[in-house]
Amino acid sequence: MNFELAQRVQSLTPSTTLAITAKAKEMKAQGIDVIGLGAGEPDFNTPQHIIDEAIQSMNEGYTKYTAAAGLPKLKEAISNKFKQDQGIDIPASDIIVTSGAKHALYTLFQVILNKGDEVIIPTPYWVSYPEQVKLAGGKPVFIDGLEENEYKVTPQQLETVISEATKAVIINSPSNPTGMLYSKPELEAIGEFCLKHNILIISDEIYEKLTYDGHQHISIAQISPELQEQTIIINGVSKSHSMTGWRIGYAAGNTAIIKAMTNLASHSTSNPTTPSQYGAIAAYNGSQQPVEEMKNAFEERLNIIYQQLVAIPGFTCIKPQGAFYLFPNVEEAAKLTGFADVDAFVKGLLEEAKVAVIPGSGFGSPKNIRLSYATSLEQLEAAVRRIHEFVNHKLQ
Protein backbone atom coordinates (compact mmCIF):
# COMPACT_ATOMS: atom_id res chain seq x y z
CA MET A 1 0.00 0.00 0.00
CA ASN A 2 1.39 3.39 -1.00
CA PHE A 3 0.37 5.63 1.88
CA GLU A 4 1.68 9.15 2.40
CA LEU A 5 2.52 10.12 5.97
CA ALA A 6 1.44 13.44 7.46
CA GLN A 7 3.79 16.31 6.66
CA ARG A 8 4.19 17.09 10.37
CA VAL A 9 6.12 13.86 10.94
CA GLN A 10 8.03 13.69 7.67
CA SER A 11 10.53 16.32 8.82
CA LEU A 12 11.15 14.82 12.25
CA THR A 13 14.74 13.92 13.11
CA PRO A 14 15.16 10.61 14.96
CA SER A 15 16.55 10.90 18.49
CA THR A 16 20.36 10.76 18.27
CA THR A 17 20.52 9.43 21.83
CA LEU A 18 18.20 6.52 21.13
CA ALA A 19 19.92 5.72 17.82
CA ILE A 20 23.40 5.43 19.38
CA THR A 21 22.05 3.48 22.36
CA ALA A 22 20.27 1.05 20.02
CA LYS A 23 23.48 0.50 18.00
CA ALA A 24 25.46 -0.16 21.18
CA LYS A 25 22.86 -2.66 22.41
CA GLU A 26 22.92 -4.41 19.03
CA MET A 27 26.71 -4.79 19.26
CA LYS A 28 26.43 -6.08 22.84
CA ALA A 29 23.86 -8.65 21.68
CA GLN A 30 26.47 -9.88 19.21
CA GLY A 31 28.86 -10.50 22.09
CA ILE A 32 30.97 -7.37 21.53
CA ASP A 33 32.30 -5.74 24.70
CA VAL A 34 30.81 -2.27 24.28
CA ILE A 35 30.72 0.31 27.07
CA GLY A 36 27.72 2.57 26.60
CA LEU A 37 27.89 6.13 27.94
CA GLY A 38 24.72 7.30 26.21
CA ALA A 39 22.29 6.61 29.02
CA GLY A 40 19.91 9.38 29.99
CA GLU A 41 18.77 7.61 33.13
CA PRO A 42 20.24 6.79 36.55
CA ASP A 43 21.78 3.35 36.94
CA PHE A 44 20.14 2.93 40.35
CA ASN A 45 16.91 1.03 40.83
CA THR A 46 13.84 2.92 41.99
CA PRO A 47 13.91 3.17 45.83
CA GLN A 48 12.18 0.24 47.50
CA HIS A 49 9.57 2.27 49.40
CA ILE A 50 8.30 3.66 46.09
CA ILE A 51 8.04 0.20 44.56
CA ASP A 52 6.26 -1.08 47.67
CA GLU A 53 3.70 1.73 47.57
CA ALA A 54 2.89 1.08 43.91
CA ILE A 55 2.44 -2.64 44.57
CA GLN A 56 0.26 -1.94 47.60
CA SER A 57 -1.92 0.43 45.58
CA MET A 58 -2.51 -2.27 42.99
CA ASN A 59 -3.28 -4.88 45.64
CA GLU A 60 -5.81 -2.48 47.14
CA GLY A 61 -7.56 -2.10 43.79
CA TYR A 62 -6.23 1.28 42.67
CA THR A 63 -5.85 0.16 39.06
CA LYS A 64 -8.57 2.25 37.42
CA TYR A 65 -8.74 5.62 35.70
CA THR A 66 -7.87 8.77 37.61
CA ALA A 67 -8.66 12.38 36.76
CA ALA A 68 -6.93 13.44 33.53
CA ALA A 69 -4.73 15.92 35.42
CA GLY A 70 -3.65 13.29 37.94
CA LEU A 71 -4.51 12.15 41.44
CA PRO A 72 -5.39 15.05 43.79
CA LYS A 73 -3.11 13.53 46.44
CA LEU A 74 -0.17 13.53 44.03
CA LYS A 75 -0.83 17.10 42.95
CA GLU A 76 -0.90 18.12 46.62
CA ALA A 77 2.44 16.36 47.14
CA ILE A 78 3.90 18.29 44.18
CA SER A 79 2.45 21.54 45.53
CA ASN A 80 4.11 20.85 48.90
CA LYS A 81 7.38 20.09 47.12
CA PHE A 82 7.31 23.54 45.53
CA LYS A 83 6.76 25.15 48.95
CA GLN A 84 9.59 23.19 50.55
CA ASP A 85 12.16 23.39 47.75
CA GLN A 86 11.46 26.71 46.04
CA GLY A 87 9.36 28.55 48.60
CA ILE A 88 6.62 29.19 46.05
CA ASP A 89 2.89 28.60 46.36
CA ILE A 90 1.47 26.73 43.39
CA PRO A 91 -1.97 25.28 44.16
CA ALA A 92 -2.82 21.74 43.07
CA SER A 93 -5.34 23.20 40.62
CA ASP A 94 -2.42 24.77 38.69
CA ILE A 95 -0.61 21.45 38.25
CA ILE A 96 -1.10 18.72 35.67
CA VAL A 97 0.51 15.30 36.05
CA THR A 98 1.58 13.81 32.72
CA SER A 99 3.05 10.64 31.25
CA GLY A 100 6.60 11.83 31.80
CA ALA A 101 8.11 15.32 31.62
CA LYS A 102 8.57 14.86 27.86
CA HIS A 103 4.79 14.54 27.51
CA ALA A 104 4.31 17.63 29.67
CA LEU A 105 6.44 19.60 27.22
CA TYR A 106 4.67 18.11 24.21
CA THR A 107 1.24 18.99 25.60
CA LEU A 108 2.40 22.48 26.56
CA PHE A 109 3.61 23.27 23.04
CA GLN A 110 0.36 21.94 21.59
CA VAL A 111 -1.74 24.35 23.66
CA ILE A 112 0.39 27.53 23.43
CA LEU A 113 1.61 27.52 19.82
CA ASN A 114 -0.14 28.50 16.62
CA LYS A 115 1.38 28.09 13.18
CA GLY A 116 4.45 30.28 12.84
CA ASP A 117 4.82 31.10 16.55
CA GLU A 118 8.47 31.15 17.56
CA VAL A 119 10.14 29.50 20.55
CA ILE A 120 13.68 30.59 21.46
CA ILE A 121 15.84 27.54 22.17
CA PRO A 122 19.38 28.01 23.51
CA THR A 123 21.99 25.64 22.13
CA PRO A 124 23.17 23.14 23.21
CA TYR A 125 19.61 21.88 23.65
CA TRP A 126 17.87 18.68 24.65
CA VAL A 127 17.13 16.83 21.42
CA SER A 128 13.31 16.86 21.64
CA TYR A 129 12.75 20.60 22.12
CA PRO A 130 12.91 21.66 18.45
CA GLU A 131 11.03 18.59 17.21
CA GLN A 132 8.16 19.15 19.64
CA VAL A 133 7.94 22.82 18.69
CA LYS A 134 7.72 21.86 15.01
CA LEU A 135 5.05 19.25 15.73
CA ALA A 136 2.93 22.01 17.26
CA GLY A 137 3.31 24.17 14.13
CA GLY A 138 5.84 26.45 15.78
CA LYS A 139 9.28 27.55 14.66
CA PRO A 140 12.41 26.84 16.73
CA VAL A 141 14.72 29.87 16.90
CA PHE A 142 18.21 28.96 18.10
CA ILE A 143 20.74 31.10 19.97
CA ASP A 144 24.21 29.86 20.84
CA GLY A 145 25.06 29.25 24.46
CA LEU A 146 28.75 30.05 24.08
CA GLU A 147 31.38 27.82 25.63
CA GLU A 148 33.08 30.86 27.18
CA ASN A 149 29.80 31.62 28.99
CA GLU A 150 29.39 28.03 30.21
CA TYR A 151 26.95 27.35 27.34
CA LYS A 152 24.40 29.78 28.80
CA VAL A 153 22.61 32.65 27.02
CA THR A 154 22.18 36.30 27.94
CA PRO A 155 19.41 38.90 27.52
CA GLN A 156 21.61 40.62 24.96
CA GLN A 157 21.55 37.49 22.83
CA LEU A 158 17.79 37.12 23.29
CA GLU A 159 17.41 40.70 22.06
CA THR A 160 18.99 39.77 18.71
CA VAL A 161 16.39 37.09 17.88
CA ILE A 162 13.16 38.35 19.42
CA SER A 163 10.34 39.13 16.99
CA GLU A 164 6.61 39.76 17.00
CA ALA A 165 6.18 35.99 16.60
CA THR A 166 8.18 35.11 19.74
CA LYS A 167 5.95 33.19 22.13
CA ALA A 168 8.29 31.52 24.60
CA VAL A 169 11.88 30.83 25.63
CA ILE A 170 13.17 27.57 27.11
CA ILE A 171 15.49 27.55 30.12
CA ASN A 172 16.91 24.14 31.08
CA SER A 173 18.83 24.31 34.36
CA PRO A 174 20.62 22.05 35.22
CA SER A 175 21.13 21.47 31.53
CA ASN A 176 21.02 18.35 29.44
CA PRO A 177 23.57 18.03 27.81
CA THR A 178 25.99 20.50 29.47
CA GLY A 179 25.23 20.05 33.16
CA MET A 180 25.45 23.81 33.70
CA LEU A 181 23.29 25.86 36.07
CA TYR A 182 21.97 29.40 35.70
CA SER A 183 22.77 31.60 38.69
CA LYS A 184 20.19 33.82 40.37
CA PRO A 185 21.58 37.04 38.76
CA GLU A 186 21.54 35.38 35.33
CA LEU A 187 17.94 34.26 35.82
CA GLU A 188 16.93 37.70 37.09
CA ALA A 189 18.33 39.31 33.93
CA ILE A 190 16.57 36.82 31.62
CA GLY A 191 13.37 37.15 33.65
CA GLU A 192 13.41 40.93 33.35
CA PHE A 193 13.76 40.58 29.58
CA CYS A 194 10.85 38.14 29.36
CA LEU A 195 8.59 40.34 31.50
CA LYS A 196 9.44 43.37 29.38
CA HIS A 197 8.53 41.56 26.15
CA ASN A 198 5.73 39.40 27.60
CA ILE A 199 7.44 36.13 26.67
CA LEU A 200 6.42 32.89 28.37
CA ILE A 201 9.27 31.15 30.21
CA ILE A 202 9.39 27.36 29.98
CA SER A 203 11.62 26.24 32.85
CA ASP A 204 12.72 22.61 32.46
CA GLU A 205 13.87 21.60 35.95
CA ILE A 206 13.95 17.81 35.58
CA TYR A 207 17.54 17.59 36.96
CA GLU A 208 16.99 19.99 39.88
CA LYS A 209 17.90 17.44 42.59
CA LEU A 210 21.20 16.51 40.94
CA THR A 211 23.64 19.34 41.65
CA TYR A 212 27.22 19.01 42.88
CA ASP A 213 30.17 20.62 44.60
CA GLY A 214 28.02 23.09 46.55
CA HIS A 215 26.03 24.35 43.55
CA GLN A 216 22.30 24.80 44.10
CA HIS A 217 19.41 24.82 41.65
CA ILE A 218 17.32 28.00 41.53
CA SER A 219 14.00 28.16 39.72
CA ILE A 220 13.32 31.35 37.80
CA ALA A 221 9.76 31.13 39.19
CA GLN A 222 10.97 31.68 42.75
CA ILE A 223 12.62 35.03 42.02
CA SER A 224 9.41 37.09 42.06
CA PRO A 225 5.62 36.68 41.92
CA GLU A 226 5.66 38.29 38.48
CA LEU A 227 8.12 35.71 37.14
CA GLN A 228 6.18 32.88 38.74
CA GLU A 229 3.11 34.04 36.78
CA GLN A 230 5.21 34.21 33.59
CA THR A 231 6.68 30.70 33.99
CA ILE A 232 5.56 27.16 33.31
CA ILE A 233 7.70 24.72 35.31
CA ILE A 234 8.35 21.28 33.82
CA ASN A 235 9.56 18.57 36.16
CA GLY A 236 9.08 14.94 37.19
CA VAL A 237 10.40 12.04 39.23
CA SER A 238 12.33 10.30 36.43
CA LYS A 239 15.82 11.61 37.20
CA SER A 240 15.48 12.65 40.85
CA HIS A 241 14.06 9.34 42.07
CA SER A 242 15.37 7.01 39.32
CA MET A 243 11.86 6.41 37.96
CA THR A 244 12.42 6.85 34.22
CA GLY A 245 10.21 3.90 33.26
CA TRP A 246 7.34 4.93 35.52
CA ARG A 247 6.54 7.88 33.22
CA ILE A 248 5.44 10.53 35.69
CA GLY A 249 6.13 14.19 34.94
CA TYR A 250 4.21 17.38 35.48
CA ALA A 251 3.71 20.99 34.46
CA ALA A 252 2.85 23.79 36.87
CA GLY A 253 1.96 27.45 36.44
CA ASN A 254 -0.58 29.66 34.70
CA THR A 255 -4.14 28.52 35.41
CA ALA A 256 -5.45 28.92 31.85
CA ILE A 257 -2.50 27.04 30.32
CA ILE A 258 -2.76 24.16 32.79
CA LYS A 259 -6.52 23.94 32.16
CA ALA A 260 -5.94 23.78 28.40
CA MET A 261 -3.29 21.08 28.87
CA THR A 262 -5.75 19.10 31.01
CA ASN A 263 -8.42 19.35 28.33
CA LEU A 264 -5.98 18.10 25.71
CA ALA A 265 -4.82 15.25 27.95
CA SER A 266 -8.42 14.18 28.44
CA HIS A 267 -8.60 13.53 24.69
CA SER A 268 -5.15 11.95 24.31
CA THR A 269 -3.67 10.00 27.23
CA SER A 270 -6.67 10.27 29.60
CA ASN A 271 -4.53 9.95 32.73
CA PRO A 272 -0.99 8.94 33.67
CA THR A 273 -0.59 5.32 34.79
CA THR A 274 -2.39 4.95 38.12
CA PRO A 275 0.10 2.73 40.05
CA SER A 276 2.93 5.02 38.87
CA GLN A 277 1.12 7.97 40.39
CA TYR A 278 0.94 6.20 43.75
CA GLY A 279 4.65 5.50 43.43
CA ALA A 280 5.27 9.20 42.78
CA ILE A 281 3.30 10.12 45.91
CA ALA A 282 5.66 7.90 47.91
CA ALA A 283 8.63 9.50 46.10
CA TYR A 284 7.71 12.97 47.34
CA ASN A 285 6.15 12.14 50.70
CA GLY A 286 8.60 9.41 51.74
CA SER A 287 12.28 9.33 52.65
CA GLN A 288 14.62 11.43 50.48
CA GLN A 289 17.70 9.55 51.65
CA PRO A 290 17.93 7.44 48.44
CA VAL A 291 17.95 10.68 46.43
CA GLU A 292 20.87 11.99 48.49
CA GLU A 293 22.76 8.70 48.17
CA MET A 294 22.37 8.70 44.40
CA LYS A 295 23.41 12.35 44.18
CA ASN A 296 26.52 11.67 46.29
CA ALA A 297 27.46 8.73 44.07
CA PHE A 298 27.14 10.87 40.93
CA GLU A 299 29.24 13.61 42.53
CA GLU A 300 31.99 11.14 43.43
CA ARG A 301 32.03 9.76 39.88
CA LEU A 302 32.11 13.25 38.37
CA ASN A 303 35.05 14.39 40.47
CA ILE A 304 37.07 11.28 39.61
CA ILE A 305 36.24 10.88 35.93
CA TYR A 306 36.44 14.59 35.04
CA GLN A 307 40.18 14.72 35.80
CA GLN A 308 40.80 11.63 33.67
CA LEU A 309 38.74 12.97 30.77
CA VAL A 310 40.47 16.35 30.47
CA ALA A 311 43.84 14.57 30.35
CA ILE A 312 42.97 13.16 26.91
CA PRO A 313 44.76 15.06 24.09
CA GLY A 314 42.39 17.42 22.26
CA PHE A 315 39.68 17.26 24.94
CA THR A 316 38.52 20.39 26.76
CA CYS A 317 35.60 20.33 29.16
CA ILE A 318 33.87 22.76 31.49
CA LYS A 319 33.18 20.90 34.71
CA PRO A 320 29.43 20.27 35.03
CA GLN A 321 27.53 21.56 38.04
CA GLY A 322 24.51 19.27 37.77
CA ALA A 323 22.67 16.49 35.87
CA PHE A 324 24.89 13.46 35.05
CA TYR A 325 26.59 14.34 31.77
CA LEU A 326 30.01 15.53 30.65
CA PHE A 327 30.01 17.60 27.46
CA PRO A 328 33.61 17.96 26.26
CA ASN A 329 34.66 19.87 23.18
CA VAL A 330 36.53 17.26 21.13
CA GLU A 331 36.92 19.13 17.85
CA GLU A 332 40.69 19.27 18.30
CA ALA A 333 40.84 15.56 19.16
CA ALA A 334 38.90 14.71 15.99
CA LYS A 335 41.37 16.75 13.90
CA LEU A 336 44.42 15.29 15.63
CA THR A 337 43.20 11.74 15.01
CA GLY A 338 42.43 12.31 11.33
CA PHE A 339 38.63 12.30 11.39
CA ALA A 340 36.63 14.64 9.17
CA ASP A 341 34.44 15.82 12.03
CA VAL A 342 33.22 14.91 15.51
CA ASP A 343 30.44 12.66 14.17
CA ALA A 344 33.07 10.55 12.40
CA PHE A 345 35.17 10.55 15.57
CA VAL A 346 32.18 9.19 17.53
CA LYS A 347 31.67 6.46 14.94
CA GLY A 348 35.34 5.55 15.24
CA LEU A 349 35.09 5.36 19.03
CA LEU A 350 32.20 2.92 18.78
CA GLU A 351 33.68 0.73 16.05
CA GLU A 352 37.32 0.67 17.21
CA ALA A 353 37.38 1.54 20.93
CA LYS A 354 33.97 -0.04 21.60
CA VAL A 355 32.74 3.02 23.52
CA ALA A 356 29.35 4.54 22.75
CA VAL A 357 28.97 8.29 23.29
CA ILE A 358 26.45 10.75 21.84
CA PRO A 359 27.62 13.24 19.17
CA GLY A 360 26.97 16.85 20.08
CA SER A 361 25.42 17.49 16.66
CA GLY A 362 22.21 15.97 18.02
CA PHE A 363 22.16 18.76 20.61
CA GLY A 364 22.97 21.54 18.15
CA SER A 365 26.64 21.58 19.17
CA PRO A 366 28.73 19.69 16.58
CA LYS A 367 32.09 20.27 18.34
CA ASN A 368 31.10 18.28 21.41
CA ILE A 369 30.20 14.81 22.60
CA ARG A 370 27.99 13.84 25.53
CA LEU A 371 29.07 11.19 28.00
CA SER A 372 26.76 10.03 30.76
CA TYR A 373 28.27 9.15 34.13
CA ALA A 374 25.08 7.34 35.13
CA THR A 375 26.99 4.06 35.14
CA SER A 376 29.44 2.41 37.52
CA LEU A 377 32.77 4.07 38.26
CA GLU A 378 34.52 0.91 37.07
CA GLN A 379 32.80 1.14 33.68
CA LEU A 380 33.45 4.88 33.46
CA GLU A 381 37.15 4.54 34.12
CA ALA A 382 37.40 1.69 31.63
CA ALA A 383 35.60 3.77 28.98
CA VAL A 384 37.78 6.84 29.46
CA ARG A 385 40.87 4.63 29.39
CA ARG A 386 39.73 3.18 26.06
CA ILE A 387 39.09 6.65 24.63
CA HIS A 388 42.51 7.85 25.82
CA GLU A 389 44.23 4.80 24.27
CA PHE A 390 42.23 5.26 21.05
CA VAL A 391 43.42 8.87 20.72
CA ASN A 392 47.01 8.07 21.64
CA HIS A 393 47.13 5.21 19.10
CA LYS A 394 45.85 7.52 16.34
CA LEU A 395 48.51 10.10 17.25
CA GLN A 396 51.38 7.65 16.81
What proportion of the residues form beta strands (DSSP E)? Answer: 5-15%
**SSE arrangement, N to C:** HHEHHEHEHEHEHEHEEHHHEHHEEEH
Unreliable residue stretches: none
Rounded to the nearest angstrom, the radius of gyration is 21 Å
Number of helices: 15
Please state the average pLDDT score: 96
The level of helicity is: 40-55%
In what order do the strands lie side by side in the largest sheet?
A: 2-8-7-6-5-3-4
Overall structural class, as computed from helix and strand content, comes to: alpha/beta
Q: Largest sheet, if any?
A: 7 strands, mixed
Task: Kindly state the number of beta strands.
Answer: 12
Keywords: Aminotransferase, Pyridoxal phosphate, Transferase
GO molecular function: transaminase activity
Cofactor: pyridoxal 5'-phosphate
EC number: 2.6.1.-
Structural summary, described in words:
With 396 residues, the chain is an alpha/beta fold. Helix content is 44%, strand content 13%. The protein contains 15 helices and 12 strands. A 7-stranded mixed beta sheet has the order 2-8-7-6-5-3-4, sandwiched between helices. The protein has a 3-stranded antiparallel beta sheet with strand order 9-12-11. Helix 3 crosses helix 11 and helix 5 packs across helix 10 (255-266). It is globular. The termini are far apart. The model has no long low-confidence stretch (mean pLDDT 96). Belongs to the class-I pyridoxal-phosphate-dependent aminotransferase family. Its cofactor is pyridoxal 5'-phosphate. Keywords: Aminotransferase, Pyridoxal phosphate, Transferase. It comes from Cytobacillus stercorigallinarum. Residues 33-387 form the Aminotransferase class I/classII large domain.
